[in-house]
Amino acid sequence: MSSDSVYNELVLKFANVNGSGSASANAFCAKALFRMGIPVSAKNIFPSNIQGLPTWYEIKISESEKLARRDGIDIFVAMNAQTYDQDINEVIENGSFIYDSSLLRDFKRDDINIIGIPIAKLCADAYTDTRQRQLFKNIVYLGSLSLLIGIDFDIIKQLLSDQFHNKPKLIEQNVKALEIGRKYIEDNIKYPLNKQVRKSNKNTNKIMINGNEAAALGAIYAGATVASWYPITPSTSLVEAFEKHAMKLRKNEDGTINAAIMQAEDELSAIGMAIGANWNGARAFTATSGPGISLMSEFIGLAYFSEIPLVLFDIQRGGPSTGMPTRTQQSDLISCAYASHGDTKQVLLFPSDPNECFQFSLDSFDLAEKLQTPIIVLSDLDIGMNDWVVDELEWNDQYQHDRGKVLNSEELENTKDFGRYKDVDGDGIPYRTIPATHPELGAYFTRGTSHNEYGGYTENGLIHAQTLDRLSKKFKTAENLLPQPKIIINSNKTKIGIINFGSTTRAINESLEYLSGKGIAINHMRIRSFPFSNNIRDFIDQHDIIFVVEQNRDAQMKTLLKTECDIPISKLISILNYDGMPLTSKFIIDEINKHIEENKDINDLISPLIKIV
């Protein structure tokens, strides 16, 4: 073992062929590292087909908990000959490139450690079944890695036992494949490598979970009983997770399930079902991505104007059109903020990790009923489908669902001159009833056409304008009910700030830590909801230059800030990334440095700051 070995700080990447069964083995690797107590972040980079195209899986391993994605790979396990040329170029100097040497290759790099393991040949010798030969190749390289970098072998075996607990023969076959990989390394390869892992204690009170799973759990705990959906990547797994947990947590004493999960024929039907269920008193939601938002737009407007609660999860992906279905992006802001035609404005929540996906999912159902409007939770593929290590999800057993201004039978009898759309309290939010609350009173029309305070149809333009004004008042009320921004003041002297939202937060935090070490302090605000609250406006007012970091081409958050907060456009500087990959801190730092070099105003602000910090 080398004295200059580096522990628990590396990037491990796998290159495979989609449909080859590699996903399970790669996930086993990430989970084994997590169970060793090491902070990890896993990114599954997969194509939008069922089988045959290249797929990659990255694991960032960081004892220092710097888990944003990083360019440059320390150890690459390359199992797809089609991408060898691309893959080997990602390996950093003194890194390691592991490949299936059943067919020898000359890679023409002498600055890295090239390790050949004849995986296909080893499997051909050990297994007679063609499918087994293919599948167990992935387990063989996992066994090899257990020695090459020090992954705990007993933990891997325990993971296999957990996964296949009712299939002992399969456990035996997988362990055999692990041992094949280990035996080859023991007999032929000098190990361990210069980048290694060892047990840590950093994952105390942590869990590994993806955002879609966490959001589904939030919906369960929020009391949702209806999910209507049409499959679309990357939101499908959210409803699948809801169904899985409902089968356990929504089970009645007689064995029936107190939940309805309905796969609709299209996105229009899916959102229509959710609106109908919410109108009828259930807590219901739907989940989709950008193309679905486009199709659901008219129904979102119906829920907005008729004031029916609705929760909608938008797991954003690359667009426009079909775009890049399996890549991440933050490009649905404008389409969601003003979803539907006419004067509409929707409430948006921006979770930054799976922990917030759980909390915001839980909150969204209360908000939808308190505000009587759609609540759109904007996650993205990176959060939704990738595994993150986060703090344990928190739940208060004393929590009570807040259904907002819902009148029961007795309250309805004591209410004089009930009007479904009357603003009694001056906050823009009327009172409502649930159908069949009272045998005689409270019957009302819920209208998507123009209506008066009683839900009656009207073409009186003044009454219509009053309704629109009341809805605007409702959104002022919403500002104080929504999750407030997270603000970090790194220096009271600096006049430079940075704004972000969602999944870019890890990369932002690492960038600011690096810049601080170079004597450049930048204050940070993470936006967590829309409409914007006054403290967002105050933060911007207190700074001369604001960098706005987002993953879309057209600077959609910057546009929202300018439009809604009346910010001078010259004050906001965009840092934009839209290649579909999770953001890196290097990209942010390079962009900030570029703007500092090109902009005299920023230079003037930075120069005295360096002396102060």
Verbal overview:
With 613 residues, this protein is α/β, with parallel strands linked by helices. 40% of the residues lie in helices and 19% in strands. Helix 1 (22-35) packs across helix 5 (153-163), helix 9 runs parallel beside helix 10 (290-306) and helix 19 (585-598) packs across helix 20. The two termini are 41 Å apart.
Strand content is 15-25%
CATH-defined fold name of the largest domain:
Pyruvate-ferredoxin Oxidoreductase, domain 3
**Using DSSP, what is the number of strands?**
22
CATH class category label of the largest domain: Alpha Beta
At CATH's second level, what is the architecture of the largest domain?
A: 3-Layer(aba) Sandwich
Q: Briefly note the structural class of the backbone.
A: alpha/beta
Radius of gyration, rounded?
27 Å
Mean pLDDT: 94
Count of discrete domains? 3
What's the arrangement of strands in the largest beta sheet?
11-10-12-13-15-14-20
Q: Which spans of ≥5 residues are poorly predicted at pLDDT below 50?
A: none
Number of helices: 20
How many angstroms separate the termini? 41 Å
Range of helix content: 25-40%
**Largest sheet: number of strands, sense, barrel closure:** 7 strands, mixed
Fourth-tier CATH superfamily name of the largest domain: Pyruvate-ferredoxin oxidoreductase, PFOR, domain III
Global shape: globular
